[in-house]
Amino acid sequence: MGRREKSEEYRLEMIRHLKEKYQQAKPSEVLEAEKVIARYRESEARDRGAMARLRLQLPNENLCPECFYMHERESILHTIGSESGVDRFRCRECGYEIETTPRL
Questions:
Q1: Which residues of the chain have pLDDT under 70?
Q2: Structurally, how many domains does the chain consist of?
């Protein structure tokens, strides 16, 4: 058998070997690493969206800043009471609370 035939035999054997290797189930370590990478990419995408929204001013002072900037929601802050000249508001979606002094 000449060099050409030996090279072709080697090439065909490597094709069979690699097909078998990648037709098998991935090792659990690889699957876990892929999950970690996917979670990281999702987090990164959320953070990039939040960064873009944080460049904007809140379009309405009654909106919850936590929901608007961090969760891309437009939730209204609701009054939960007033004490000694301080108004308190809470978001029903995320629980964010803020205290303000009433305008005169």
A1: 103-104
A2: 1
